[in-house]
Amino acid sequence: MADADDRLATELDLLHSMYPEINYDEKRREVSYRAAGASFQLRLPYDYLDSALPDVLYASAGKTDLREQLKQCIAACDVGEEVLDSIVLSFIELVNSKASEDSSESQATGDGGRESDSKATIVVWLHHLLNTNKRKLALSPPSRDVSGVTKPGYPGVLVYSGPARPVHDHVNELKQQNWQAFQVRLESEEEWIFTHGAGVKEVEAMKDIVAEVGDAHKEIFLEAMRMR
Questions:
Q1: Model's pTM, two decimal places?
Q2: Which CATH architecture has domain 118-224?
Q3: Which site from 19, 51, 147, 167 is most exposed, i.e. has the minimal number of CB atoms within 10 Å?
């Protein structure tokens, strides 16, 4: 039991360093997460990290109940392993997927003549971006109207801006690749203008991205990267 307690304490420390929005009620053994109108709460069985997985108490994004979807994600996890970070990532992906669906439905039912006027900027954090094919894919959105910046290495960073539909389509295409971690850290309806101009450019370091987004969006970007 002592070993399991130590593992849990270490896992929670690491989890909180990655996601400051995480809270843990030690008495109730409940893990909760809340960010941007989405939240979930889990209960950790006493045999978690041995022979059981966390139980979902609730999970929602706005008025949408995501409990069943999150339960399915947890059921696919390995029993006896630290899985809380995977659960948080799965929940974020569920929320982003729901937001994309809502956006598509809104565009489909809205004024079709104005759909091309909507803009978007998306910032993505990756555990790493090393694979050559993934780097090429990140640099090659299907639409020439999409501009952005990518940074390979640890962590990987993707920033795309332009017409909303092609920006979301490109990010969704990338999301289908096999990533250790793929987190949408920022979605904005504002178009960003990059220093290099049009197209997508790969840079070497985080400071290069800051230079590319300029003073107008520097603080927003750094907050999305949790560097503020």
A1: 0.54
A2: 2-Layer Sandwich (3.30)
A3: 51
